Amino acid sequence: MPQQVRGVIARAKGAPVEIAEITIPDPGPGEVVVAVASCGVCHTDLTYRDGGINDEYPFLLGHEAAGVVESIGEGVDSVEVGDFVVLNWRAVCGQCRACKRGRPQYCFDTFNATQKMTLEDGTELSPALGIGAFADKTLVHAGQCTKVDPSADPAVVGLLGCGVMAGMGAAMNTGNVGRGDSVAVIGCGGVGDAAIMGSRLAGAGTIIAIDRDPRKLEWATELGATHTINASEVEDVVEAVQELTGGFGADVVVDAVGRPETWKQAFYARDLAGTVVLVGVPTPDMTLEMPLVDFFSRGGSLKSSWYGDCLPERDFPMLVDLYQQGRLPLEKFVTERIALDQVEQAFESMHRGEVLRSVVVL
Ligand SMILES: [Zn+2]
Ligand SMILES: [Zn+2]
């Protein structure tokens, strides 16, 4: 039987989000209904609300979630009813040219549920990143469910589903940060701070946090930054990074902002043959003009990181285990726990830079 539950909907561009009754169909082949336990408020949800991704309103927001499998459709054998799962937005296909070459983290054909969740009048909902978890329950593809240690706090480990994984993976997977490396991270919100935490986990020696907001630099220090640079107080961020790295620049620089000026800083703040990782998301109007010879003469690699080049099946259980062992301070990302009807206020707190993550607990 299809079920009626509460969900947080964005009906029109820029309009405040609201709670609506939504209909969840029974899971079809390959699909799973998940009873949501928690869902973090990510900047991408706000971007959906504001029309920055597409105009397929109404959106069912929320995508950094953990929960329990309630029912499974035909042919699902990767999870069972009762499994505790973290949801991911890249269920890899195993068939595309990237998957076939053994690089599923680049899968070009990821899965979502086939059926649609709807409003009571039958209007189809567009779930954010194919998840839509600001809701009591949601319908996803089985491949979007990754089983993890059920004794872990859902509000904490659900955050691995998006921003925290994107940041950690930008450092560990894309940037390939290793023992003793120097790392600089530009922008210390959720993703940047996760890159700092990932760099520490990977054994980086010097970890430099760069932001304009002293509060964010404090968070960065708690998560493992060894040095901070307040970009509004120094004349030249690149020189400041060089000063902290023996005059050379960092081995890996992560741009977690994604603007031409921050990417340029990242480019010039790295050592010769160093790595730049772009994980902040630029807008389509942004362009870059730079001397081509600088790209050639400085060598190294210039990379972008989607979802931290993660493989949920490989990375989520491992990171949850490290968190459970006290080796990964994931809980520091949870600034506040809120109710389903407080998502709009959480957007405002996020906009003012007051929170690393607000997490809806259901
Ligand atoms: Zn694939
Ligand atoms: Zn997100």
TrEMBL record:
Protein origin, superkingdom: Bacteria
**Family (UniProt):** Belongs to the zinc-containing alcohol dehydrogenase family.
Q: Does the keyword NAD apply?
A: yes
Instruction: Cite the SMART domains for this sequence.
Output: PKS_ER
UniProt keyword list: Metal-binding, NAD, Oxidoreductase, Zinc
| Gene Ontology biological process | formaldehyde catabolic process
Q: Name one GO molecular function term.
A: zinc ion binding
Query: What is this protein's name?
Result: S-(Hydroxymethyl)mycothiol dehydrogenase
A Pfam family it matches: ADH_N
Q: Which GO terms describe its cellular component?
A: cytosol
**Domain Enoyl reductase (ER) positions:** 14-362
Q: Which organism is it from?
A: Rhodococcus tukisamuensis
Q: Which cofactor does it need?
A: Zn(2+)
Q: Which PROSITE patterns match?
A: ADH_ZINC (PS00059)
By its UniProt entry, which PANTHER family does this protein fall under?
A: ALCOHOL DEHYDROGENASE, ALCOHOL DEHYDROGENASE CLASS-3
The record's InterPro entries line, in alphabetical order, gives: ADH-like_C (IPR013149), ADH-like_N (IPR013154), ADH_Zn_CS (IPR002328), ER (IPR020843), GroES-like_sf (IPR011032), MycoS_dep_FDH (IPR017816), NAD(P)-bd_dom_sf (IPR036291)
